Amino acid sequence: MAPPRPSSARRHRRHAAFPVALVTTGRRLLIAGGGPETADRLSAALRFDWASITLVTLAVRAPLRRIASRDARVRLVERPVREADVRAADVVIEGCGDPGVVERLSAWCRRHRRLLNAMDSPPHCDFHGVSFFARGPLLVSVASGGHAPALSAVLRRRLEAAVGPGWQTAACLMAAARGRLPSGPVRRSRMKALAADADLMAAIARNDRRAIRALLAGPRSPFATRKRRPAPAGEKTR
Length: 238
Description:
The chain is an alpha/beta fold. It has three domains: 24-127, NAD(P)-binding Rossmann-like Domain (Rossmann fold, 3-Layer(aba) Sandwich); 132-163, no CATH class; 165-217, no CATH class. The chain is built from ten helices and seven strands. It has helices at 8-12, 38-45, 62-68, 83-87, 99-112, 149-162, 165-177, 185-195, 198-206, 209-217, and strands at 28-32, 52-57, 74-78, 91-94, 115-118, 131-135, 138-142. The strands form two sheets. It has a five-stranded parallel β-sheet with strand order 3-2-1-4-5, with helices on both faces. A two-stranded antiparallel ribbon has the order 6-7. The radius of gyration is 24 Å and the shape is elongated. The N and C termini lie far apart (72 Å). 22% of the residues are buried.
């Protein structure tokens, strides 16, 4: 006897997709199909450190050729997608919208243990696309698990308008400086304390690079050198 299905309310208390940031460095991306959203997906892919990006489609339209010409990592292949294309990739994005192609890609991805994102077909997806923007090393993304992508895009645009360039300035300076501290709980706690500093927030709002740098070097900074307190008179030091 099959177990009872959870109620709708219970199902919606749990998200099916866990938000993670996939490391693209050294990995191969396959985009299958040249549908209306493929140009946007290819442009987004170029912003990440994929080892290679292969676009397989029956006909490569001029906009796709222009985008691909900007980056030597992109290879254009004009033919139907094959199982060998999936086997040669690490991550697969479907961009044609053909249900038959989606079914074949899904079967091939399961067989070869490849991650698949299928356009407008959440049941076939191993991961979902997100609406995102970048401020230097900061990536801010909004996801709906494929259920409300248009709403995700609207929220992303609102957030993008609210997150000014000072966040990029601070992120770049902190990324360059954080290597001075050994990794571990001490660095994490000091970094969190600095990130919550009201003066830092004010400097970020002004995009004041000099003030941000001074806060990173100042006595409240986790990167500042801690001087040892002198021992009381008569007390031996080790």
